[in-house]
RNA sequence: GGACGCAUAGCUCAGCGGGAGAGCAUCCGCCUUACAAGCGGAGGGUCGCAGGUUCGAACCCUGCUGCGUCCA
């Protein structure tokens, strides 16, 4: 057979894989050729992932890199499986973050947003976006994201803004969006309300001050960590059953420093066992106090402005809240009102998740979404299995949240965002304006000043990006989406809200079939990465140093469901080594004429090694498939790594060398097996490491691209167990000889004459050439004198290997080697006897387990006898 | 304060009822004609502690300790 091998490809393959030189051009070719462009009109089954939109201000961090690797792998595999695969990109407008960035820029020019005015400021933000926004999109290209760039979306785009307005109107009309005066989480720095989950609690050091209110008989001690709020107290509350204070309920006591008299009220929500059992009530500055105030019709006295500066008349007016606190305490101390002070006092303090400023509960008029009915539906969709959460342990957390949800504060006192489509009339009219409606005009009409929470528009992402509210082809084709992949840290912020909004907007159809939640990235010692710790690893540094494939493989390989991932530079280097290994193995295969141009010959024309590696590849396909379906990225990477390195490279390539050396039909058959197995591996690896596999696969097959290659499927050929057993025997024999050689200090390259007996019984007579090649043994010649020997127990029987080491052997080393084997066998025997001598075990354990132990025992006994005999035969060392 | 998760080799993690595993790190020997980003070999663990269930527990149950996360 002298047919043409695809030589043009083999010679094209450089000696080394140089990702930096190849990746960008390769990526651009993929995009230009439209491989990632989804066709809504095809008749393929749909597969769709919407990208969790990164902030327009953001840049790529490891968490993104992980999530993108996952999404890309899922999408690429489906594409290869023949799905119409759409991975839809975009960004969100990040209200507070973006406004902050542009305000900082303005501050550099000595301006505030108020100097520009709302309209000009918003223009300015758009200008900023055009110039600096979306850096992350370019970084995504470097990662190799197989994304449909033609469908890129932005939450502030006209289409998505229209979706926001439409859904707001629907919520308003259904009575699910309402305006109310409530205590909300307020950031005195960002000057806006926040939703509950945008507040992060931490245990901070503060002070607990006990203050005596009233005098003499009518005095009550209350404790507080926020002394300055006492200026706004309008009552003291005690538990109605509390005997200590029963006589005071209904009376009034003097509020120090203010001269005001405030009532003592009885409220069941007061915990009589905490502190003195009496609490001060500041309805305008505390959510619990607000509730008490409502129940007892107490006035709400606001004593701070939006920046946290005291407004109450008196000596504290104009002080910041943190200056006012010690000042108030000092003044109270002077009056002899301080009963106790505990400092430092650890307690939970809320911080703005954006800027870390201590959140100030503030009474204000805000818009809310009534979430109860939406949350119920969102919970049910998961409960009844229409949407599956992976890993399932996280579903419980999801339920806990959606089942105990407070109404969602959606208005933000910002300028950058979707302005609330509510117009107020001169006579108190409130009109909600839909997307195709004209807002009312005329004297006294004005639009609500606030914008909507960014998460409100993000919540619409799975359908707004597909064209909703229009009934587009994309929407019909790709909704509900297949998988939503994101970190579990935004399960509530985003996933739960998309579930609520999707079910609400799309007639009860949930937005995803599967929700995959990956873990968080940590440093090598398991600590959270943060700028302050200085342990952040920049993914771009990895892309530069090791290539995109290595970075991706590292992340995918660490992605065990439900657990966080520790990362270190060595991990990436290891992945780079794997890519190099794959490269070199492919180069070897190609240099030796590996090909997919011919089909693999019929089984009976193949060797045990061929059949074994083909069967293993077959098993690998099913294993990888199953692991993909279960989102087990770490395990599927491990399986691919192990097969490629430990089986294909370490054994089959070595065995193939022997077969190719035979020449003729054997060599030709080997070339097709080499080629087909490599082809399978490259296709299986492509979703995770797209670049190197593309170059190798096109070189191997001459095909246009592996991006569109067909995903491997099982052929259904049954495993050849005889071939597998023989190869395992060869592996064991070779390994034992190598071990002997190493123990005896024989150089790896040194060829040693050897005589093998018992190979027929062990059923490996056909593999002597391979054994000799892999163990570096040569045929015994006439002068052969066995100076050393070892026995290897194989599945079929014992093999004796006699070696001519042309000299003496290291008796001490050999004795040590045998002693070790003996000790292992004795331990095995003891273990087996321990079980078999236990009547309860023999009686109750399943027969197959008992039989297995018996077989193991027999083997151990035989080993002991054999090794003991050899030790006895050994000369004194 | 409530809930959950995790404790397995030096490090990071698999395994979750019947012979303790991987990657990295370590030690020894090698530039053996694809690969020193490599090859061959080796060492290393009372599977957090204490009970219990079971013929049998790293694995199931209870308690404890330590660490972490989420919610208040």
TrEMBL record:
- Task of the protein: Catalyzes the attachment of valine to tRNA(Val). As ValRS can inadvertently accommodate and process structurally similar amino acids such as threonine, to avoid such errors, it has a 'posttransfer' editing activity that hydrolyzes mischarged Thr-tRNA(Val) in a tRNA-dependent manner.
Q: EC?
A: 6.1.1.9
Which InterPro entries does the UniProt record give?
aa-tRNA-synth_I_CS, aa-tRNA-synth_Ia, Anticodon_Ia_Val, M/V/L/I-tRNA-synth_anticd-bd, Rossmann-like_a/b/a_fold, tRNA-bd_arm, tRNAsynth_Ia_anticodon-bd, Val-tRNA_synth_C_sf
Q: Answer whether the UniProt record assigns the keyword Ligase to this protein.
A: yes
Q: How does it assemble?
A: Monomer.
The Swiss-Prot or TrEMBL note on domains reads: ValRS has two distinct active sites: one for aminoacylation and one for editing. The misactivated threonine is translocated from the active site to the editing site.
Q: Which residues form the Aminoacyl-tRNA synthetase class Ia domain?
A: 26-567
Q: Where in the cell is it found?
A: Cytoplasm
Q: Under what name is this protein listed? A: Valine--tRNA ligase
Which is an annotated GO molecular function term of this record? valine-tRNA ligase activity
Residues bound to ATP are: 531
Q: Which residues form the Methionyl/Valyl/Leucyl/Isoleucyl-tRNA synthetase anticodon-binding domain?
A: 610-752
Q: Where is this motif: 'HIGH' region?
A: 54-64
Tell me the superkingdom of the source. Bacteria
Start and end residues of each Valyl-tRNA synthetase tRNA-binding arm domain = 810-874
Keyword Nucleotide-binding on this protein? yes
The source organism is Kutzneria viridogrisea
């Amino acid at each position: 057979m002298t047919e043409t091998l695809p030589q043009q490809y083999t010679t094209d393959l450089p000696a080394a894989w140089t990702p930096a030189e190849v990746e960008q051009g390769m990526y651009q070719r993929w995009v230009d050729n439209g491989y990632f462009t989804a066709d809504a009109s095809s008749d393929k089954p749909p597969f769709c992932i919407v990208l969790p939109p990164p902030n327009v201000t953001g840049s790529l961090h490891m968490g993104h890199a992980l999530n993108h690797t996952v999404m890309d792998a899922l999408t690429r595999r489906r594409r290869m499986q023949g799905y119409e695969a759409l991975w839809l990109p975009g960004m969100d407008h990040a209200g507070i973050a973006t406004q902050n960035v542009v305000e900082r820029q303005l501050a550099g020019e000595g301006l505030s947003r108020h100097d520009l005015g709302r309209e000009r400021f918003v223009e300015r933000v758009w200008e900023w976006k055009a110039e600096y926004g979306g850096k992350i999109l370019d970084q995504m290209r470097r990662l190799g994201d197989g994304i449909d760039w033609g469908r890129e979306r932005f939450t502030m785009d006209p289409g998505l803004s229209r979706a926001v307005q439409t859904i707001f109107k629907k919520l308003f009309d259904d009575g699910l969006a309402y305006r109310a005066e409530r205590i909300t989480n307020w950031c005195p720095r960002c000057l806006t309300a926040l939703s509950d989950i945008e507040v992060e609690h931490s245990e901070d050091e503060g002070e607990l001050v006990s203050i005596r209110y009233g005098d003499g008989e009518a005095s009550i001690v209350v404790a507080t960590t926020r002394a300055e709020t006492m200026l706004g107290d309008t009552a003291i509350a005690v538990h109605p059953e509390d005997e200590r204070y029963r006589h005071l309920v209904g009376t009034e006591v003097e509020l120090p420093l203010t001269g005001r008299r405030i009532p003592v009220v009885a409220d069941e929500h007061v915990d009589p066992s905490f502190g003195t059992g009496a609490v001060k009530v500041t309805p305008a500055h505390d959510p619990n106090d607000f509730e008490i105030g409502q129940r007892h019709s107490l006035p709400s006295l606001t004593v701070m402005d939006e920046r946290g500066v005291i407004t109450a008349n008196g000596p504290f007016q104009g002080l910041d809240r943190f200056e006012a606190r010690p000042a108030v305490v000092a003044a109270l101390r002077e009056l002899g009102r301080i009963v106790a002070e505990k400092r430092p006092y650890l307690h939970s303090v809320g911080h703005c998740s954006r800027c870390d400023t201590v959140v100030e509960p503030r009474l204000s008029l805000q818009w809310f979404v009534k979430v109860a009915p939406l949350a119920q539906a969102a919970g049910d969709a998961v409960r009844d299995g229409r949407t599956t959460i992976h890993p399932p342990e996280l579903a419980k957390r999801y339920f806990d949240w959606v089942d105990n949800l407070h109404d969602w504060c959606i208005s933000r006192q910002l300028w950058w965002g979707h302005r609330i489509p509510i117009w107020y009339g001169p006579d108190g009219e409130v009109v909600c304006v839909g997307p195709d409606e004209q807002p009312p005009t005329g004297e006294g009409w004005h639009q609500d000043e606030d914008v909507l929470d960014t998460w409100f528009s993000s919540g619409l992402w799975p359908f707004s990006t597909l064209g909703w509210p229009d009934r587009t082809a994309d929407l019909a084709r790709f909704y509900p989406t297949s998988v939503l992949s994101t970190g579990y840290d935004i399960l509530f912020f985003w996933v739960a809200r998309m579930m609520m909004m999707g079910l609400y907007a799309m007639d009860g159809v949930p937005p995803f079939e599967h929700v995959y939640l990956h873990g968080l990235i940590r440093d090598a010692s398991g600590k959270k990465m943060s700028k302050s710790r200085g342990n952040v690893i920049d993914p771009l540094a990895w892309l530069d140093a090791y290539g995109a494939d290595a970075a991706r493989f590292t992340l995918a390989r660490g992605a065990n469901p439900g657990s966080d991932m520790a990362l270190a530079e060595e991990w990436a280097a290891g992945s780079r080594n794997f890519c190099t290994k794959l490269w070199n193995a492919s180069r070897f295969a190609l240099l030796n004429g590996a090909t997919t141009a011919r089909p693999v010959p019929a089984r009976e024309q193949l060797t045990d090694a061929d059949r074994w590696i083909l069967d293993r590849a077959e098993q690998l396909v099913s294993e990888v498939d199953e692991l993909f379906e279960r989102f087990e990225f770490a395990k599927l990477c491990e399986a691919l790594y192990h097969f490629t390195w430990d089986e294909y490279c370490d054994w089959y390539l070595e065995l193939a060398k022997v077969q190719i050396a035979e020449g003729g039909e054997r060599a030709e058959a080997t070339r097709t097996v080499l080629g087909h197995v490599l082809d399978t591996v490259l296709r299986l690896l492509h979703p995770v490491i797209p670049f190197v596999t593309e170059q190798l696969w096109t070189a191997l097959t001459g095909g246009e691209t592996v991006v569109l290659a067909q995903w491997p499927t099982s052929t259904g050929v049954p495993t050849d167990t005889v071939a597998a057993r023989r190869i395992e025997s060869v592996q064991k024999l070779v390994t034992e000889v190598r071990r002997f050689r190493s123990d005896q200090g024989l150089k790896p390259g040194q060829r040693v004459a050897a005589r093998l007996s018992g190979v027929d019984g062990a059923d490996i007579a056909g593999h002597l050439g391979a054994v000799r090649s892999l163990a570096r043994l040569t045929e015994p010649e006439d002068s052969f004198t066995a100076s050393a020997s070892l026995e290897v127990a194989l599945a079929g029987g014992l093999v004796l290997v006699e070696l001519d080491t042309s000299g003496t052997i290291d008796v001490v080393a050999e004795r040590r080697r045998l002693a070790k084997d003996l000790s292992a066998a004795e331990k095995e025997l003891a273990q087996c006897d321990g079980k078999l001598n236990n009547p309860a075990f023999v009686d109750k354990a399943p027969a197959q387990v008992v039989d297995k132990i018996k077989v193991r025992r027999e083997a151990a006994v035989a080993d002991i006898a054999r090794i003991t005999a050899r030790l006895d035969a050994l000369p004194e060392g």
